[in-house]
Inverse folding.
């Protein structure tokens, strides 16, 4: 299953972040790593299912988790 990084809006409360994670789980996602420096988490989703999370009211961004390289 593809993995995604979900970033919640800057003004999201801890309860709203938890509600976003709950929504992800209800949509078939599996929470992996939870970040402390940003309001976000890593989630794996069945192919094509992440679009419901992108529209969630507390979500700022959803990016496919991938390796990042610097020059």
């Amino acid at each position: 299953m593809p993995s995604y990084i979900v970033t919640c809006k800057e003004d999201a409360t801890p309860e709203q972040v938890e509600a976003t994670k709950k929504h992800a789980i209800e949509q078939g996602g599996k929470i992996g790593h939870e970040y402390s420096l940003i309001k976000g988490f890593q989630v794996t989703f069945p192919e094509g299912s992440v679009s419901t999370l992108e529209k969630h009211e507390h979500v700022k961004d959803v990016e496919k988790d991938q390796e990042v390289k610097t020059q």
Q: What stands out?
A: The mean pLDDT is 88.
